[in-house]
Amino acid sequence: MEKIWLGAFLGITCFLLLAWMYRRHRSWIANFILRACAGLLLIHIVNWLLEWRGIGLEIGLNPVTAGVAGLLGVPGIAVMYGIVLYFY
Fold first, then answer.
1. Could you tell me the residue range of the domain that residue 79 belongs to?
2. How far is it, in rounded angstroms, from Cα 13 to Cα 19?
3. How many structural domains is the chain composed of?
4. Would you say 9 and 31 are in contact if contact means Cβ atoms under 8 Å apart?
5. Rounded to two decimals, what is the model's pTM?
6. SS3 (DSSP) at 11
7. Are 59 and 81 in contact (CB under 8 A)?
8. What would the pLDDT profile of 29-80 be if each residue is shown by its tens digit?
């Protein structure tokens, strides 16, 4: 039962933080969303090219990779491919 309360508390806190950030920093949020979408598109294209060439390095498209792409951009995507290559 306490996990539900903890999850609700964290959810409400995150919502309030995002609402505050939206009011104060709209351009930052728009920039993050734009970079995350562009990063996911780049990951999808690179995954397709690697699959077409028969190379098994693939990064999944999920909220974590979107966050890394939104925060770090192309260098973050390169680091994710480097991590996948290291553990390949």
1. 26-86
2. 10
3. 1
4. no
5. 0.71
6. helix
7. yes
8. 778 888 899 999 999 999 999 999 998 889 999 989 999 998 899 999 999 9
**All residues at 6 or more sequence positions from 80 whose CB lies less than 8 Å from its CB, including other chains:** 43, 59, 65, 68
Residue 56 in domain = yes
For the record, the structure tokens of 11 come out as: 């959810």
Q: What are the structure tokens assigned to 24, written together?
A: 């104060």
In a domain, 48, yes or no: yes
Task: For residue 31, give the DSSP letter.
Answer: H
DSSP characters over 60-86: --SHHHHHHHHHH-HHHHHHHHHHHHH
CA proximity to 21, closest of 9, 33, 8: 33
